[in-house]
Structure formats: structure tokens, C-alpha cells
Amino acid sequence: MTDTLEPAARKRPKQPRKPEALGEHVASVVDDLQRRYLRQESAAIATLAQLRQAVNAEPGTAGLAAVWLPDALIERELRYDRAEPPRATPSERALHTAVTLFAIHQQSQREQRMHTPGTTFAVACQWLAAVRGNDETVHRRFAAVGTAATYAELVYHVRNLVTQLRAAKIGFDYGVFADDLCLFQQGRALNSGLTGADHVRALWGREYWRASAGPTRPAATDPDTADPSTTQE
């Protein structure tokens, strides 16, 4: 599949997707962690290390405030099974996945922001392919994301791409990403007639193939780490 957009259409600015309630919470969490990590605060460094270790754990088992949802979001969708302890909700699972993957993404990046609002996961992957010279390896891995049959399989393939994005210093919007992860877990048909998983697959596919083929991407520097002589109060 190829991008048939005319060059002028490719350059036309598009309104970036905005995070919803869950995404706004995730964006707030990772933005705070990111800022403190880039300032080399020991507490933030330790928190990200704990989050990386918790990437395969169940939501809520890491014992970290960063992986808990605010009460308003929990009350909206929490459900209980009489025969079992409370199960993780789609929002809780999406939050846990997004925050722990961010911890992997930001690891050792002391000057670059890996949470970059306005850039979706799929667009970041297209940029990764572009800077590698249209790397077929990236295309195959992204295709594997698109064919993931389960949430666990999706996360496995996304994690592989996140490590490559880290090496290329390419970030993406973890707020919008969390919303997509939550939607992927919704089995019911949407207004479009698609399940949540099919909707996310279609959305990411469009964003990936319509993204600019060039390697240009927004700068990922943090103003808190900029040279004080070049910043204004």
C-alpha cells in the first residue's frame, strides 16, 4: 500500500488528535515524570526504574502511585465479579501499559522528551521507518501490531517498536496512546460498526501510511533542560 496524497496535501497541517479523560490523566502522569527525570531528580529516576520492572505485571501490583487511576475514572467503569477479586478495567490496563512503556522509552534519554504531545504512535513509527531509509523491519513490526489478535500480543509488538523509537530518539503522545489502548479492549461494536480493536487498527494504519515519508519531526527537547542563557522568564 502506498501513499497517494499529492505533495501539497502532505504538507497541509492537520489537527492533531487530542487525549480524552483517560489520556489527559496519563499525559499528566508521564509529563510530570518526564520533567523530573530530565532534571535528574533521584525520585523520578527510581520511579521509572520500578515502572520498567513492572511492565509485565498486572495493573495495580507495582505499588506505585503512578499506575493508579483517579477515583472519577475508576467509578465510571469498575466492575466486580462475585466469585473473584476485582478485575482490572480497560482504563486501568491501558494506564499501566502506557506508563510502563513510557518508562522503557525514556530510559537513558536525559535530554530528549519521549512523551511528545501531538504525535501519535503510528506517525512516530512511520518516522522511524523514514530515518532508517524506509526500513522493511519497521514495516513488518508495525504490520504485526495491526494483526495482533489479543491485547497481550498487541503490547508485545508495541514494546518492540518502543525500544527502536528510543534508539532513534523519536517520541509520541502517551495520552492519545492510552486512549487507543483502552479502546482496543472494547469488544462491542462502535458507531462505525467496528469493534474497538478493529477501529484502532484502522486508525493506526491510516496514520502510518499517510504520515510524511520524510524524517523531519518536532524537536524533543525539554525547556527545563535548556541553556539558562537562552531562556526567558
From TrEMBL:
CDD domains per record: Cse2_I-E
State the superkingdom. Bacteria
Coiled-coil zones:
none
Q: Which parts of this chain are annotated as the region Disordered? A: 1-22, 213-233
A UniProt-annotated Pfam family: CRISPR_Cse2
**NCBIfam families (alphabetical):** casB_cse2 (TIGR02548)
Protein name as annotated? CRISPR-associated Cse2 family protein
Q: Which organism is it from?
A: Glycomyces artemisiae
